[in-house]
Specification:
The chain has about 220 residues and is mainly alpha-helical. The chain has three domains: about 100 residues, no CATH class; about 55 residues; about 30 residues. It is built from seven helices and no strands. The N and C termini lie far apart (about 95 Å).
Length: about 220
């Protein structure tokens, strides 16, 4: 940057924000709970003991990966996308200058400490059987598995929505060709009949309630 004294000042820019904003700006929107913002590792990778070191992201790598994802979206698995969904929004700041979000680290570690503290306090005040401890460990294990499955389902729906819509359209087209899909007129008829049935049932329930609450005098 030049000033009135014709001197040049070099400015180094860093980026500090919430981790969700990091993922939006880097083109990883929606994957904050699944992929690393700084390398190509998936959550199940870095949680494994002795896992390999991930390949660090650079803006050049992110742009190249985003180009591949956008051009071949339907032919890539979620792992092949490496969590990249779109082009980076802010390319002037290198990924290495994204300051680690201490908020999330503090919250995560704080929650771990709190949970373990509560467990220790309970254990010191109550004698738990071995069966109870096994059941408690299973609760933690299956809770993690449920969370992981929910993440996988969310990612599958996000990346496969277009393919699912295409398959549903093919199925409806095939059903219509086979004569097993209702025509618009048939659909309206069925809807009308269902409405009449529901109305009749509602009337009977209403009459029954009136009779049941009528005082005996």
């Amino acid at each position: 940057m030049e000033n009135q004294y014709d001197r040049i000042a070099t400015i180094t820019v860093f980026f500090a924000a919430d981790i969700l904003l990091y993922f939006i700006v880097l083109g990883h929107e929606g994957d904050a709970g699944w992929w690393c913002a700084y390398c190509d590792l998936m959550k199940t990778d870095w949680q494994a003991q002795g896992h390999r070191r991930g390949q660090e992201w650079t803006m050049e790598k992110l742009i190249a990966q985003a180009t591949t994802v956008l051009e071949t979206r339907q032919r890539l698995t979620p792992r092949e996308t490496q969590g990249v969904r779109s082009m980076p929004v802010l390319t002037s700041v290198p990924v290495s200058h994204y300051i680690v979000s201490l908020l999330h680290i503090t919250i995560g570690k704080g929650n771990d400490i709190l949970n373990h503290l509560v467990d220790e306090m309970q254990a010191s005040g109550v004698v738990f059987t071995a069966e109870y401890m096994v059941a408690l460990e299973n609760i933690y294990k299956y809770t993690d598995l449920m969370s992981e499955s929910a993440d996988k389902l969310s990612r599958f729906n996000a990346f496969s929505s277009d393919e699912i819509s295409r398959l549903e359209l093919e199925e409806r087209t095939q059903m219509r060709a086979n004569g097993t899909l209702l025509s618009p007129d048939e659909y309206q008829t069925v809807q009308q009949e269902l409405s009449e049935i529901l109305e009749h049932l509602s009337l009977k329930i209403s009459l029954s309630l009136r009779i049941s609450i009528t005082p005996p005098f």
